[in-house]
Amino acid sequence: MIKLQTKNIYSSIHVLIYTMKLRTTHNSIRIRIRKSEIDLLAQKQIVEESIRFPSGTLFKFALKIGNDDQMVNAVLEDNNLIISISKAAATQWINTNEVGIETNINLPDNEQLHLLIEKDFPCLDRPEEDKSDTFWELAPETPESC
Description:
Blueprint: H1 2-17, E1 21-25, E2 28-33, H2 35-44, E3 46-52, E4 58-66, E5 72-77, E6 80-86, H3 87-94, E7 100-107, E8 111-119
Parallel strand pairs: 2-8, 4-6
Antiparallel strand pairs: 1-2, 3-4, 5-6, 7-8
């Protein structure tokens, strides 16, 4: 009984540790999601994650299927980042071997916001990481980086 309870606790932690990944650099946002999150996106139309900071501030980010015709869009309001994908783009991406959706959105002062949403590949240089929920079948045999 105790062993089963420990296994359930580990499973809960496992799910929390390996979730949607967010990477940002100057005017660039990249999201990587795993197979189970693609399934959740298809079912619920949204995948969400959050980060709590020591000050108590909660930053949330989400990938959702939107109702508009814009292929990809990004909105940041009240510590909530929402990346939305059009229904047509999401349907094609979810149901094919297409690895990612990428676009640039024009900003003021001749700048652009680069958005990239990708299916997550296994990282071969991280042997301790659980790779069972990644897209092995789409990964190159010798990836340059993860």
